[in-house]
Amino acid sequence: MTWQGNPSHHRAKGFTLIELLLTLASLATLSTVAYPLTALMGQHIRELDLQRSLREIRCAIDAYKTLTTH
Predict the structure, then answer these.
(1) Each residue of 42-51: pLDDT tens digit?
(2) How far is residue 18 CA from its own chain's centroid?
(3) Domain range annotation of the chain
(4) 21-27, long-range: CB within 8 Å, 24+ apart, which pairs?
(5) Taking the mean position of all CA atoms in its chain, how far away is CA 63?
(6) How many CA atoms are closer than 13 Å to the CA of 12, on its beta-carbon side?
(7) What is the largest CA-CA distance in the chain?
(8) Which Pfam families does this entry report, sorted A to Z (predicted)?
(9) 3-state secondary structure 16-34
């Protein structure tokens, strides 16, 4: 059985080079935006941990002062 269609209308399956380049450019743009955001989130988490640690230290100092002054 042979193909009877017009060979000029036959299109190979797959992606074109332009489609691949546009996808790659989009992914690169998204990654350059996402990386600083993840760095900021990491910094925010460290700051929250530091605040928690400082509260614990302050409570411990207050408890020590209460125990030693009475």
Answers:
(1) 999 999 999 9
(2) 27
(3) 15-69
(4) none
(5) 41
(6) 4
(7) 103
(8) N_methyl
(9) CHHHHHHHHHHHHHHHHHH
Helix (H) or strand (E) holding 40: helix 17-69
Tell me the one-letter amino acid at 13. Answer: K
23: its two tokens: 């996808």
Radius of gyration of the chain (CA): 31
Question: Distance (Å, rounded) from C-alpha 50 to C-alpha 56?
Answer: 10
Average pLDDT of 4-32? 85
What is the pTM assigned to this prediction? Answer: 0.53
Residue 57 is which amino acid? I
Q: How far is CA 48 from CA 35, 57, 62, in A?
A: 20, 14, 21
Assign 12 to helix, strand or coil.
Answer: coil
